[in-house]
Amino acid sequence: MVLADTLFRPLIVLGSFALSLLAGIGRLAMFAGRAVRAMLTPPWYPARLFEQMALIGWFSLPVVGMTALFTGAALAQQIYVGGQRFSAESTVPAVTVIAMVRELGPVLAGLMVAGRVSSAIAAELATMRVTEQLDAMVTLRTDPWRYLIAPRIIAATLMMPVLVGVANIVGILGGYLLAVYRLDFNGSTYLATTMRYLEADDIVSSLVKAAVFGFLLALAGCYHGYRSGGGAAGVGRATTNSVVTAFILILMFNLAITVAVFGG
Amino acid sequence: MSVPRLSIRGLKKAFGPKVVLDGVDLDVAVGESLVIIGGSGTGKSVLLKCILGLIHPDSGSIKLDGQELVGLKGKALEQARARFGMLFQGGALFDSLPVWRNVTFALTQGKLGAGAAMHKIAVENLAKVGLEPRVADLRPSELSGGMQKRVALARAIAANPEILFFDEPTTGLDPIRADTINALIRQQVSAMGATALTITHDMASARHIADRIAMLHGGRILWDGPVSQLDSSGNAFVDQFVHGRSEGPITAGANG
Predict the structure, then answer these.
(1) Residue A227: what are its φ and ψ, rounded to 5°?
(2) Domain count of chain A?
(3) Which structural domain range is residue A97 located in?
(4) Is B248 on the interface with A (CB under 8 A)?
(5) Beta strands B59-64 and B220-226: pairing type?
(6) Considering only alpha carbons, which residue of chain A is nearest residue B54?
(7) ipTM of the prediction
(8) How far apart are CA B22 and CA B8, in angstroms?
(9) Quick count: other Cβ atoms within 10 Å of Cβ B145?
(10) Which residue ranges form the domains of chain B, and what is each CATH number?
(11) Does A193 fall in a domain?
């Protein structure tokens, strides 16, 4: 009996983990469904939406811009050094623009905004849950799904393409600055090569990824914040879990979109 | 006999194995102020949340003027809630909004617009709870606990509800501020002619607010009667609770 317990223990643990993971995915999917319904049906709160667009979009610009600038410059340096091994230093502008627009711009902006916005949404909603503000809202005949959740998810979905657009441009600029001022590239040749290798599909996939990531990161924040409980510790848990969930979702969906668009 | 404003029958609610409400029967007459007393963890807040439709009971009936509330959804539930005003234990004011938007939230449902008119209504309601007009433009975080309770009371009465619910209205307040809140509740309930249902374990508050008192223990109403009979209830549970004695049928760990 003891031997059987020992033998089956890992399977039991694995099975229990798989079941709880599936249950979690199911809950998140149901939450997403209800959130989408709230987004598509009245009443709408345009003032809340614009407020969230400013909070998510405008105030994320510095962190997204800084991340993209340094990443673009570091990327150009790496491509240059790596390219030297097979005399391909001239690929710096082409590889930088493709890498930034297709992958690094959307993913890094997504992760940075997730760190900033998902956690803030989760903390705010979790605090509202703990202090009974969500219950108060319901008794005052206002649906928290429409008043709180829908504006946040719509705002993030709309603002992320703008942020990723900025991240792409600033990232390319970072690569340009490093290439021109440190690696002695010709400025106009660098820009011309960048434009020659940038295709419409790259931009479209980048912006589609951005919108999807915006939806996911706000969804993760709302999901963990709205469902939280357990006082101050619950608020902390919701904040941490929202960031972890947002990161995993962004990376998973990034792969899925990349394979779907560029998988051949 | 007239239909009670609120009539609860056989209300049950359990969370997993823990039975919180085990067949609550209770009536509240029109214009009456009923206070439910009971120790911490006896299910007072759960009962209130079941009435407000925030928690779904496992079984039983809650009728508002004869209309069943359990299972009510959509517009019908909205219409029932429009008749309610609720003062939450911690105030539950919305941090992101100024006081005047909080006070008029039931009227606007969070929509902007009619700002000047709403500000005027907020100031009028703040005056009813003894707060100056300047408070209207402050944020909830700038208020003391007592002021937050007053603002929450102003929010609860702003839409002239027919039924007011108070969840531990004096918790966390010093005796003087608690007495002020009790007086305000009594005054506003009388002025509006509203029906009131309060849950508390503060006996001074209960005596101040109540026309009638009911005691919830073990998931059921053990006793109810006029406040004047509270000290001669003849119920050992009520006697122990009212006099705050550690010895008696209620044990400290009975409710978890």
Answers:
(1) -95, 10
(2) 1
(3) 45-262
(4) no
(5) unpaired
(6) A135
(7) 0.91
(8) 12
(9) 14
(10) 6-243 (3.40.50.300)
(11) yes
